[in-house]
Amino acid sequence: MNSLNNRLYSALNTIVDLFLLNLLWVIASLPLVTFFPATAAMSGVVRNRILQKETDDILKSFLKMFKENFKQSLIISIFWILLAVFLFLDYRLIYPGTSVVQLILSIILAIGILLFSSTSIYLFPIMVHFELSWKHVIRNAFLFSLMNPVLTVLLLIIVGAGIALFYFYPVTILFIGSFTAYTIYYLCQMWFNQLLNMKGTN
Predict the structure, then answer these.
(1) How many CA atoms lie within 13 A of 141 on its CB side?
(2) Of 110, 126, 173, 122, whose CA–CA distance to 148 is shortest?
(3) Distance between CA atoms of residues 79 and 67, nearest Å
(4) How far apart are the C-alpha atoms of 111 and 61, rounded to whole Å?
(5) Measured distance between the N- and C-terminal CA atoms of the chain, rounded to whole angstroms
């Protein structure tokens, strides 16, 4: 009975912490330009909870991770926004169109958008898990998205479901961010462990 109560208390404590973490993420993201640093901070807190079983104060942990990842995540955000704008302008130039050339360009653009989306999902888990320069964060995020296509598709579905849930039920902004981040990092951590095990056996 005590073991069951302890597990229940731990689960409830985690849920409450994720709600608080989500609130901090929303507040820190409000200026928009701080969306990447805020998301990196949220991912960092989630990592410490999953990997190190950290139980420090959520606010203290969030501010610490926000400060540690601010510069790198801000640089990546600038590069990522420029890349997103480039893809959007390409889309506007290509559509609507029915010629063979436009069809080929549409396929290339669709592949580019898919790679962009896939790489984006891995950016924050890699950023907070490994000590890498911003260029290597992007490089590894791109490579990881190709190395495990099953996981990549699963992560895309999770993010897509989160976005759809927020779109149809805006009130989910109260929890959707941190719960999605927790799920994504948990799955990525399993993948990181597999890579380390494969490297260790070679």
Answers:
(1) 25
(2) 122
(3) 20
(4) 38
(5) 45
Looking up tokens 């099953």 gives 150
pLDDT tens per residue, range 83-110 = 999 999 988 888 766 778 888 888 899 9
Distance separating alpha carbons of residues 34 and 62, to the nearest angstrom: 13
Check: CB of residue 119 under 8 Å from CB of residue 142. Answer: yes
Show the tokens assigned to 146: 């190709």
Claim: this prediction has a pTM higher than 0.85? yes
The Cα–Cα gap between 124 and 41 comes to: 9
The token pair at 202 is: 């070679």
174 closest CA partner among 18, 32, 62, 59: 18
Q: Confirm if 82 and 45 have CB atoms less than 8 A apart.
A: no
What's the CA gap between 167 and 127, in Å, rounded? Answer: 27
